[in-house]
Design goal:
Number of strands: 10
Number of domains: 3
Distance between the termini: 70 Å
Largest sheet: 5 strands, parallel
CATH superfamily of the largest domain: Tetrapyrrole methylase, N-terminal domain
CATH class of the largest domain: Alpha Beta
Number of helices: 11
Order of helices and strands: EHEHEHEHEHEHEHEEHEHHH
């Protein structure tokens, strides 16, 4: 059996008795980083009989057949990540898929997950949401993925590093417009913080200070539902009508309220129309 075991994301008090028992009963513990898992076991004074094996993105192709062979031989393998719930922006899904293909039982010992905790304390809608993982490191890829997500009307959850946070907030403010965003930091730890403001306000704040320390989760409210009813052609037509009686600035503001499109984008479109006329 493969058991996907959740571990704390910061506070050791969140290490459930069931998760501890699962690790104690396992024959093999497949770890994202064996050093991190050994440290966790030591901090919790947890003695295990299992052999710890490294299993991550870089050695997955080599290690997966070995783990599958152990499972087929009747061993119990516990899969853990460095923190939180495995497979949530961590390696492991290919092993789970292979187990299903070969008829090996898969179960999970649930526990902490930073994206879900951040969502529950964000004050953003929780009925529909999407987890986007890490914002791509390259600016071109980041812009493409953020642009692709601009029309989603559900809450978005992203991982981002402190060093790139200000740049990402600025990019999101440009593409998404004035949406509410929430930054959670050091969840479950001593210096846990939650900051809730518009994207542009947060972009300016973090752009004017040194990068924050610790693990971050960034959440952004979804697009205005009415935005889906306006494609580019419809928006241009709307702006043309508004510009007959309003300035470029006021036209962008009014169109934002009607369409849900980002005001900056609308301003540039209105400016082009005004110059053309």
């Amino acid at each position: 059996m493969l058991n996907i075991v959740s571990t704390p994301i910061g506070n050791l008090g969140d290490f459930s008795p069931r998760a501890m028992t699962a690790l104690q009963e396992a024959d093999i513990i497949a770890c994202e980083d064996t050093r991190t898992t050994r440290k966790l076991l030591a901090l919790c004074s947890l003695e295990v009989r299992a052999k710890l094996l490294a299993y991550h993105d870089h050695n997955g192709q080599e290690m997966r057949p070995k783990l599958l062979a152990l499972l087929e031989a009747g061993r119990t393998v516990a899969l853990v990540s460095d923190a939180g719930t495995p497979l949530i922006s961590d390696p492991g899904y290919k092993l789970v898929a292979a187990c299903h293909s070969q008829g090996i039982r898969v179960t999970a010992t649930p526990g902490p997950a930073a994206p879900l905790m951040a969502l529950t304390i964000s004050g953003l809608p929780t009925d529909r949401f999407t987890f986007q993982g890490f914002v791509p490191q390259k600016q071109t890829a980041a812009r493409a993925q953020i642009t692709e997500s601009a029309s989603l009307t559900m809450t978005q959850i992203w991982f981002e590093t402190p060093r790139r946070l200000a740049k990402t907030l600025t990019l999101m403010a440009e593409i998404y417009g004035e949406r509410t965003a929430v930054i959670t930091r050091e969840l479950t730890k001593l210096h846990e913080t939650v900051e809730r403001q518009t994207l542009s306000v947060l972009a300016q704040k973090f752009g004017d200070t040194d990068p924050p320390k610790g693990e971050l989760v960034l959440l952004v409210s979804g697009a205005n539902k009415s935005a889906k009813n306006y494609d580019e052609e419809a928006v241009i037509s709307l702006l043309e009508d508004i510009l007959n009686r309003a300035s470029v600035k006021d036209a962008a503001k009014e169109a934002e309220a009607l369409t849900g499109w980002p005001r900056r984008t609308l301003y540039q479109m209105a400016l082009q129309i005004a110059r053309r006329d």
